[in-house]
From TrEMBL:
This is Glycosyltransferase family 2 protein. The keyword Phosphoprotein does not apply. One of its GO terms (molecular function) is glycosyltransferase activity. It is found in: Cell membrane. It comes from Marinobacter orientalis. CDD domains: GT_2_like_a (cd02522). Residues 8-154 form the Glycosyltransferase 2-like domain. InterPro entries: Glyco_trans_2-like (IPR001173), Nucleotide-diphossugar_trans (IPR029044), Trfase_2_rSAM/seldom_assoc (IPR026461). One of its GO terms (cellular component) is plasma membrane.
Amino acid sequence: MSESLSLSVIVPVWHEAATIQSFLQSLQPVRMAGHEVIVVDGCSDDGTADLAAPWCDQVLTCDKGRALQMNAGADATGGNVLLFLHADTLLPAAAIDHLERFFSSPEQWGRFDVRLSGQRAIFRVVAWFMNKRSRLTGIATGDQAMFVRTPVFRALQGFAPIPLMEDVELSKRLCSLSRPYCIKEPVTTDSRRWEHGGAWRTIFLMWRLRWRYWRGESPESLAAAYRADVRHAKS
């Protein structure tokens, strides 16, 4: 008898008290189908971990840092497929069906298409470019809900412990094993950061950062540039 899908959804969080319960409620069908949801809190001081506990299978706490948190969640999992999901991103209703088809495929990893929640036309354009770029390059980002077979993730020693571009860095290594399995039905990512920072401003910021990363700049310097730009946008 062939092995069946056993999914572990890993959610890194930090200061998500306002929305964590409604977000996790959206994942209850995943748990009801026999899969697990693991929340990894980066030492929030707003009660995020306590609010999350009734709605998931495990709450872990570790130092803040998305790569560190996702690796901690992966270390605690019992599933044969890991799905890394941001706390502002919702899975489509048929996500499990899609992931079962992935599990039966030869691919080692994959991602969803993405759409942004905002109604402005610019958000549809942004999502189209994100998905098109990913299909052309094979590179996925965290907004696209990356998933990977657990033995493969562990063999690659998980995400690099870097403060930015951990998703791009892992995608590059995964591409050496297989092209990503692309699920066309999109996850829905909250457009709030695009709205708060300005849609065009955020687009140009992310492209500048990726261009600088491809030119060899360190993730540490890029993270500093990102934080400085975000502070400037809020001032």
